[in-house]
Records
---
Amino acid sequence: MAAVEALTAAVDQLIALFNAKAMDLPDGFFDRKTQFVLNGAPFETLLGQPPTDPLVLMLARGPAGYRFAVKALQHAVPDAKIERGELAHDGDPFKLKTRLWLSGTLRGTGEAVNTVVELTLRLAADAHVAVAETAVDPSVLSKIRESRLRP
């Protein structure tokens, strides 16, 4: 139970840091190999280069991958805020699920974003996040991508 409480505190700390526009991370939350998956696609496959390229892996995984993705999101939705729902286990002690609510305004259009993000964290034996999987409505994700390209 203490591990679940510690993980919950780390998730809440990460959300608070995101909402404060800070790029800091809770100690030990991600390691350099943590993989990020968006709508079933590993982040490194979305960068337009071979996913096995060492530079791509360096940018797409671990704390650098988190910061790279968050900066892109915060550029597209400058006032982005996240709130979370209840954390749930489905019997697997190495998997945690929750819903996040992402809200804000798209850059350049003023259009409001208010969407649910399904988050699944797969933990390594030492309790750091090995894989962070997110699922976002593809139409909302498309609008965020378009907004990211605006100056």
---
Amino acid sequence: MLSDLISALIRGVTFHGFDQLTHFRRAHSPFSPWKAKTNEVVAQAQAEASRYGITAKVDRRRAYQVARLLVSNRRGDHLADMVSDAYSDFSPPSAATFHNGRRSYGDPRERLGAFRAHPQTLAYLLTPAKLARLGAGASPKGKLVVIDDGEQVNLETVATRLHEVLDGKAGSGDLRAYGEILLRLHAGVPEPENADADSEEVEAAA
């Protein structure tokens, strides 16, 4: 949190006015009017991550950003650019197709839930704060941070790509730990261990 405060002080004065200082206070203060909503995002992200077998700390500063949807992150970037596929699903870009009846969209609450559970959003929220301050965790369209949709890739490759994206500013241990999170998200929610046994029992009964 101290590193976040220093970052907010530097960036708040030099780049984004006092916005970053305001966002820091609202993300971390126990008296913040956004405390409950931020806690909700943190709890949902941790619950969703556990489905992938991931135990990791949620970046509270980013959780506040996801709760607000419209505020910028530590570096002044917005969610529409950081989690492009997830944000497009939540907030479809073409209102015209909706209003003329050519396309229907789900209930806003369902779309919000899907947005928060999207792998791109989870990868963004589960980025370690040390890497988040360097700008890690953004997913271009069709990617999960540095992994293409449907790509088969190993940990070494993911760590190397993260190293290149961050210009070598992060340690290998941090990159590998985050790379493992990305690989789990990329692989999807694992099947229950007894799924095969259950299916065999159903087939035998049939």
